[in-house]
Amino acid sequence: MKAIFLMGPIASGKGTQADILAKKFGFFHFETSKFLAAQLNKPEFAKQKEQFDSGQWVDPNWVAEIVLKESKKITNQGQGLIFSGSPRTVEETSVLVPFFAERVGKENLVFFNINLSEEESIKRSISRRICRANGHPIPNFPEFQNMTLCPEDGSELIRKSLDQPEIVSRRYQEHLNRTVPIFDFLKKQGYAILEINGEQTIENVSRDINQYLNFDSSPVYQPV
C-alpha cells in the first residue's frame, strides 16, 4: 500500500489529479471535504459549519480525528489512499503522517505540492463547476466549457457556493499561512516534497506527477 498526498491551494487541480491516479492505480480517493461535509450537517457541529461556510478552516484537530478514523477503515481493507485536501495544517500532519508511516511504511508515503498563483486560483475557482451527485470536478478549461452533464455520472453541473473571489482569496492566504509550513515540517523528518507546476494542462500535470510514481523506484523517504 501507498499513501499519496496531493497538496496545493484552492483550484490547483488536486481533486482532478486524485481521480486520475485512483483510477490508474486502484487506490481510494479520500476527498476530505466530503467526509467533513457529512459531519458538518450534524447539529453538534454547527460552529464548525459556520466556519466552513464562511471560507475559514475548521479546527485541525477535529479534522485530523475524522480523517484518521476513516483512514483506519480503508487501510484495514488493504487499500492504498490518495488524499486531495489532507493534511492542510501542521497539526493534522503531526497526527496523520505517523499513523501512515506505521501502517504502510515511511518509504510508501509520497507528498506532492501542486503550485498555483493566487490570480490563477481565483480565475479557476469562480468559473469551475462540480457535478451535483458526487462532486466530480469540472475544471475551467476550454474542452469543458460546453459540457452540461457530468461525464462520470450524468448529473447536473453546478457551481460551489464558496467559489467567490473574496472567499477564494481568503482560502489562498490560509494555504500560505497554514499549509506551506507543512513542507519544512516534513523535510525535517526526511520526506521529499515533489514540486509540480499546476498552471499546466491537466494532461501535463498528470504526466509530471506520474514520473514520480514508478512503484519500483527508490523510496522518496530518506532517514535524517
Description of the structure:
This protein has 224 residues and is of the alpha/beta class. It has 2 domains: 3-116 and 168-210, Rossmann fold, CATH 3.40.50; 127-162, no CATH class. The protein has 8 helices and 8 strands, in the order βαβαααβαβαβββαβα. The strands form 2 sheets. The protein has a 5-stranded parallel β-sheet, with helices on both faces. Strands 6-5-7 form a 3-stranded antiparallel β-sheet, with no helix packed on it. β5 (129-131) and β6 (137-138) form a beta hairpin. The longest helix has 23 residues, at 165-187. Mean pLDDT is 88; it is low at 216-224.
Note the beta-strand portion: 5-15%
* SSE string: EHEHHHEHEHEEEHEH
Please write the CATH class name of the largest domain.
Answer: Alpha Beta
Helix content: 40-55%
Mean pLDDT: 88
Number of helical elements: 8
Instruction: Please state the CA-atom Rg, rounded to the nearest Å.
Output: 17 Å
Shape, principal axes of CA atoms:
globular
Distance between the termini: 23 Å
Low-confidence stretches: 216-224
